[in-house]
Amino acid sequence: MNNISRFYNLLLARYGDLEWWPAESPFEVIVGAVLTQNTNWNNVKKALDNLRNHGILNHNGLLETPIEEIAQLIMSSGYYNQKALRLKLVVEWLDNVTGGDIDNLKEYSTGDLREGLLSIKGIGPETADDILLYALERPVFVIDTYTYRIAVRHGWVPPETSYEELASVFTANLEKDIELYKNCHAAIVEVGKTYCKKRKPLCDDCPGRDALPDSGPLD
DNA sequence: TGCCAGGCCGGGT
DNA sequence: ACCCGGCATGGC
User: Fold this and answer.
1) Which of A24, A84, A109, A193 is the most buried (most CB within 10 A)?
2) Are A114 and A108 in contact (CB under 8 A)?
3) Sign of the CA dihedral with A120 first, then A126, A131, and A137 last
4) CA of A117 to C1' of B10 (A)
5) What is the pLDDT of residues A32-51, one digit of tens each?
6) Which residues contact A66 (CB under 8 A, 6 or more apart)?
7) Exposure pattern of A21-60 as b/e (b: 16+ CB <10 Å)?
8) Nucleotides on strand B with an atom closer than 7 A to protein CB?
9) Contacts 24+ apart (CB under 8 A), A93-99
10) Does A211 score more than 90 pLDDT?
């Protein structure tokens, strides 16, 4: 067994099934994916609640509500002007492609959907992959800053590794399974929040230290 | 109290 | 092809 599988098994034993993504519908996953860009989920939750309480956490709601109004409601998630625009662009894209029914996306290949999502200004690789995996049930592995830090600090990849390269390292070393991909990313975020923060590179108590004999120092 | 959070874009080199 | 500043609120 490889180190990445070992690491995931360790996280699985520690956290179990985290049942990500916290959302009530695929559409909410998409909105949350935009709002959580470089932002604490706590702040995102408040923004989602605001949208929901105003009855616009849905396709037509976001499509028809003025961007300024959306911006005010999502203020707690930060970057609210940018994110209001990004939500508009996403929902307009959805409207063009599906006419408002996300189920219609099942007609498209994962590659075509990823390309389409990435063509939207404000949707980068991680946001696209969040949407593909957690909203659309496609087998793509999500890379976020925690995944990158953990992989580098374990010595699995060099620091200059690109998003796509790192994703392929994970998919090459894990069973191709949508539920596993979901829970693995969830567990990495969970462990990252505690042990792999930006200015805390040295983590003596980081899970995996003893269980991964082939891995390098956690820098 | 400053640092950090489940990124991404655009302009400069 | 990289590097960097900007975007912004809320929690610890």
Assistant:
1) A84
2) no
3) positive
4) 19
5) 999 999 999 999 999 999 99
6) none
7) bebeebbbbbbbbbbbbebeeeebbebbebbbeeebbbbe
8) 3-10
9) A93/A117, A93/A120, A94/A30, A94/A59, A95/A59, A95/A63
10) no
- Please give the single-letter amino acid code of residue A94: L
Token pair in block for residue A151 = 């992989």
Looking across all nucleic acid strands, the nucleotide with the smallest C1' to CA distance from residue A71 is C8
Dig out the tokens for A36 from the structure. 């959580």
pLDDT confidence of residue A217: 36
Task: Spell out the residues 6+ positions from residue A213 whose beta carbon is closer than 8 angstroms to its own.
Answer: none
DSSP string, A163-181: HHHHHHHHHHHS---HHHH
Protein residue closest via CA to C1' of B4: A198
Spatial contact of A151 and A192, defined as CB atoms under 8 Å apart: no
What are the angstrom distances between the C-alpha of A98 and each of A28, A31, A133? 16, 16, 18
| Closest nt to residue A123, judged CA to C1' | B8
CA at A1, C1' at C6: how many angstroms apart?
A: 44
pTM of the prediction? 0.94
* Domains contained in chain A, CATH given: 3-18+142-195 (no CATH), 26-135 (1.10.340.30)
**Could you give the CA distance from residue A165 to residue A183 in angstroms, rounded to a whole number?**
20
